[in-house]
């Protein structure tokens, strides 16, 4: 019997992220507590730019955006936000959405699979994803349970289960 396998990836649905940003933008424009604060949220190339006239308002806009991401099923582990930075009369927060698994995280995941996973399981790094193989599908499901329970700083999805 051939080996069963699956891939571990970290991807974001760009359309869902865009929808979350648009919803956050609408809410910021309509909410009473944001009136007169020049608060805004928008794409700036591949990054998300949040502006407001005070540090607290900028953090509040970020909080609104985070709640919209959660409602859209995007993990906050994939959101990389900086601290509010004063720029003239306004405060800015630059955020980005992380995709792909870095080499450092891939090695960490591989080590977890080797150390704590079933012995019949093999993993290999392929660019920004990992392929996990085993003869037993039960062992592969055990690896998925193990990785879901592990506290990693990256959002993982399991795809191409064969």
TrEMBL record:
Q: Which UniProt keywords apply?
A: Nucleotide-binding
**Which parts of the chain are coiled coil?**
none
Stored SUPFAM superfamilies: YajQ-like
Tell me if Oxidoreductase is a UniProt keyword of this record: no
Q: Which domain of life is it from?
A: Bacteria
- Which InterPro entries does the record associate with it? UPF0234-like_C (IPR035571), UPF0234_N (IPR035570), YajQ-like_sf (IPR036183), YajQ/Smlt4090-like (IPR007551)
State the protein's purpose: Nucleotide-binding protein.
The record, for NCBIfam families, names: PRK05412.1
The UniProt entry's sequence similarity note says: Belongs to the YajQ family.
Kindly provide the name given to this protein in its UniProt entry.
Nucleotide-binding protein ACH3VR_01135
Q: Which organism is it from?
A: Microbacterium alkaliflavum
